[in-house]
Amino acid sequence: MVSSTKVYESAVIPAPIEAVWALVGHFERLAEWLPAIRTCELKGGVRAETVGAMRELTTPDGARLTELQISRSDAERTYSYAMTETPLPFHNYRSTIRLKPVTATGETFFEWFSSFEPEAGKQAEMVALITSVYQSGLGELARRFKRGKR
């Protein structure tokens, strides 16, 4: 296994932070704005806005992943989660989504970053995959809010 690897992506979303958080802040609504996810269902009976919430994700090719919300602040519009089950060749995946207001324009600065330990020989492939997933989600959010859809 390779030591911890990090991925960071950010974008300005053309909408007020309250509108972006109303979608992104719901732990169970990931499939609504992330093209890499076909379905997202809460598991375990814990509410989506609660630390300890677990979601099961299905990708368009049928792969299943499970993620656990490990921290959350609605006031600061951020949450972190850990991937607990994945068919992908990495371990100890931790990720954070954080929103900040762009006060000059009324838009939202969106940060998405993670760390994980890829299996030997898989670092470049996993960095490219995760970067692509993050970029597709940020692009979808920008398009969605540019069209005025929430």
How would you describe the overall organization of this protein?
- The structure is a single chain.
- The protein is α+β, with helices and mostly antiparallel strands.
- It is built from two helices and seven strands.
- The chain has helices at residues 17-24, 123-146, and strands at 5-13, 39-43, 54-58, 64-73, 78-85, 90-102, 107-118.
- The protein has a seven-stranded antiparallel sheet with strand order 1-7-6-5-4-3-2.
- β4 (64-73) and β5 form a beta hairpin.
- The longest helix has 24 residues, at 123-146.
- It is globular.
- The mean pLDDT is 95.
Quick take:
The protein contains 2 helices and 7 strands, in the order E-H-E-E-E-E-E-E-H. It is an alpha+beta fold and 150 residues long.
Quaternary state reads: single chain
Range of strand content: 35-45%
Work out the radius of gyration: 15 Å
Encode the helix/strand succession as letters.
EHEEEEEEH
> What integer is the average pLDDT?
95
State the end-to-end distance: 41 Å
Count of distinct strands: 7
Number of separate helices:
2
Overall form: globular
Detail the poorly predicted runs: none
Q: Major sheet: size, sense and barrel closure? A: 7 strands, antiparallel
As laid out across the biggest beta sheet, the strand order is 1-7-6-5-4-3-2
